[in-house]
Amino acid sequence: MSSQDIPEENLPAERADEHGHGAVAVANEDNPFADPGLPPHEHRIQDIDERAAKRSERVVAMLFTLSMLATVAFIASYVTIPNDKSIFVFPLGHISALNFALGMTLGVALFAIGAGAVHWARTLMSDVEIADERHPIEAEPEVKAKVLADFKQGAKESALGRRKLIRTTMFGALALFPLSGVMLLRDLGPLPGTKLRHTIWSKGKLLVNVNTNEPLRPSDIAVGSLTFVKPEGLEENDEDFQQEIAKAAVMIVRLQPDNIKDKRELAWSHEGIVAYSKICTHVGCPISLYEQQTHHVLCPCHQSTFDLSDGARVIFGPAGHALPQLRIGVNDEGYLEALGDFDEPVGPAFWERG
């Protein structure tokens, strides 16, 4: 149906020169570059037929509703589809089912919002071209009043207040879509839980020399020597070796029992053999330097220094607290073993430290 098929009385009232449509300036010697004006405005079917406008309104609402459904499907896919599930998609081949579902639902949600907005603008919002003269950069009171009037006119012509179905579904689509981004934040990594507070050390685990991969007896540790150990059962070819050794690395030093000043340190040692975390409490560097005469260990990164004869307290450097001590003993076979886990988190301080 064209505007020619509509009786004249049903057409919107509009003068030919109201917006400059149909008004043509004639070029002459005084004005060789006359403004040709705007072409005559042609009304859309939605402008003259309310039934067509209702159809367009339903299409826009359907697209916004589709966006809401796609957002819900995105969240459901993220929650229910396993990470290791794969599907065959021609011509891509075997791909991750989760990635495919997330990409499709997110794409549909975005496309539906965009398509709904475009269809709304092209079929229901006003399409009358308006020529506006340039004005000075400074905002005069008259200009401010005109901008406000134009804004109100645009809001009126958008029919947002009258098209309640479009307004409701658009707000629903825009409100639900950000939930997709919130769900993606969950994929930044698994929640740490209590993993930062504990290591794989436990009662009965043998102290194994990291160089020989053999358990140690007290007689293997000489006075003044520094030895690095790991928990029994932790092997370098394990998938989580680096993650676990980063918390469970331990150094053992044998001191004369008379030289140990801290009572708890002495009680948690065995015949002067003390076991402390190798991870510096400043930024987590591995401690590797030992001064035999002073019983001090030094972190090579920022020179934090700890006194192993006095509870491994900090005597120099930026470290904030002492090295955690591992309580050790000897099993029935004469091998050194742990009597439990560290009683505090190892490594640098963190906000959850208790």
TrEMBL record:
InterPro entries: QcrA_N (IPR045603), Rieske_2Fe-2S (IPR017941), Rieske_2Fe-2S_sf (IPR036922), Rieske_Fe-S_prot (IPR014349). It comes from the Bacteria. It is found in: Cell membrane. It is a multi-pass membrane protein. Residues 1-42 are annotated as: Disordered. GO terms for molecular function: 2 iron, 2 sulfur cluster binding; metal ion binding; monooxygenase activity; oxidoreductase activity, acting on paired donors, with incorporation or reduction of molecular oxygen. Its main location: membrane. Pfam families: QcrA_N, Rieske. The cytochrome bc1 complex is composed of a cytochrome b (QcrB), the Rieske iron-sulfur protein (QcrA) and a diheme cytochrome c (QcrC) subunit. Iron-sulfur subunit of the cytochrome bc1 complex, an essential component of the respiratory electron transport chain required for ATP synthesis. The bc1 complex catalyzes the oxidation of menaquinol and the reduction of cytochrome c in the respiratory chain. The bc1 complex operates through a Q-cycle mechanism that couples electron transfer to generation of the proton gradient that drives ATP synthesis. Belongs to the Rieske iron-sulfur protein family. PANTHER family: CYTOCHROME B-C1 COMPLEX SUBUNIT RIESKE, MITOCHONDRIAL (PTHR10134). This is Cytochrome bc1 complex Rieske iron-sulfur subunit. It comes from Streptomyces fagopyri.
